[in-house]
Fold each of these.
Amino acid sequence: MTDYSDKSLMAASDAALLENLGSFIKYHRLQQNKTQDQLAREAGIVRSTLSLFERGENTSLLVFIQLLRALKLLHLLQEFQVKQQISPIQLAKIEQSKRIRARGTGREGMKLKPESDW
């Protein structure tokens, strides 16, 4: 597998990035001791599609997801989830609106409002 720094990643061609994806899949397939036939069957694709993918020649996002799922690496896609973030100003407003003290019952245990006779 080729290691990329942020700068070299930006400078890499699309073809080089596709080859890197293919190398990634091949590396993890071999780490799990699976043949191309086994992985292709588990991913629901044909072996020739996997072979092309591993060489970076025929890639699609759907095939990539199927391969990640079959290799039990789908969790890697969590990086692409949009996470809600609270701005510091919103956080400060939330903190200001929180109660600091509990309301007491009045002097010497008496309730503040008289009970209704209804």
Amino acid sequence: MHPRTLISAPELAASLDDPGLRIVDCRFDLADEQAGARAYEELHIRGAVYAHLHNDLAAPITPQTGRHPLPDPERFAATLGRWGIDNDSQVVVYDGGPGAMAARLWWMLRWLGHDKVAVLDGGFAGWQQHGGSTISGVSHYPATVFQSHEQPGITLDADQVQQGLAANELLLIDVRARPRYRGETEPLDKVAGHIPGAINLPFEKNLDAQGTFLPRETLAEQYRELMDANPGKQPCFMCGSGVTACHGLLAMEVAGIHGARLYPGSWSEWITDPNRAVAVGDSPD
């Protein structure tokens, strides 16, 4: 099992009885915030606990934040302890399939200094196709203590994004769907468009037709090409609220390219200040 990126359904199935393994179900539907919990109670991977995006993986929204602000690190560490995750646990996270929600928890664990975490490639859909063991109801691990070791410098705030773009030092990658980036539609936020200077690379570009991640070599080619076209710039991922952006960070890690950052507030935070510029259309300028 690779501690920092992906695990396949067969690999997880072979490790399911490992006493040090902790599995977390991150299924979530932005249009129905209880749908993931219902699906979990109906059927989940044997042993898995449930992580609710709003309640567990985000802090309450304020007028100055985006839709999914990061929780207080110590509060999140306490949540991990309640789930039975300590600093020695091998964690596997999954969602319904493409990994966009699971990648958020993958990144948050690394944010607190825990590298022994992998995303289940293909998610619950892939697990079922493999014939993996499932159970209904609610599962628990014995509670423990997780010690937070917050990693400095892996996030940028709105001012740092603005300064980095102005200095031409930042490669800001917006992973939202192209119509949202272009400002043609906006189903979730009050303003449509994108941050001037951001480029668009929808997170689905990291996946194949089956919803699993592209091979490491293909992802490396995709991101190296992007980096080579923007020499000397620091890559930073964003989306609508800092969730699916983590999919890009995961893909870069799979590709063997390290050091990319996250703008956690993303578009939904950016637009809380009317003085921040907004762009529409294809041009990143």
Amino acid sequence: MVFAAIVAVQIEDLLSSVIAVGAVGLGLSLAFLILKAPDLAITQLVVEILCLIILIRATINKDLPVIRDGRWFFNTTSTLLFIAIFLMFAYFALRELPHFGQPIMRVAQEYINQGKELTGATNIVAAIILDFRGYDTLGEATILFTAVMGVLAIIRRVGRINEE
């Protein structure tokens, strides 16, 4: 993440800088996943992808001549290298996740054992998301809604077509 942040600040190509900023956000998402916070990792990943869409849309028209001037080999190589590194980190991060049905935290075991009695819900996932972690879920939904609205505001067509 630190390396990508330095690249984002030092590189002259605006589009490459935006992609490096995206790598920082992706690294943060992986850090959340490694630190056993998958809900934050998913939220960070979605917001990061939506922000990248906005930033690439804002910079692509200004940076298009640089892309056309024979840098395709460097761009293709760096893209493939980034994908390979991302998949490697994702592989190691996903290997660290606990096996299905084996909670690693005491509170998760309490949710499983007492979820039905405390909430009355037959679906344990809904009971955890809506009863035990309701404020957290509301915050995540608000973040995702705000990010989607931001993208829609940026990529919408300006004005309306007058049909007469």
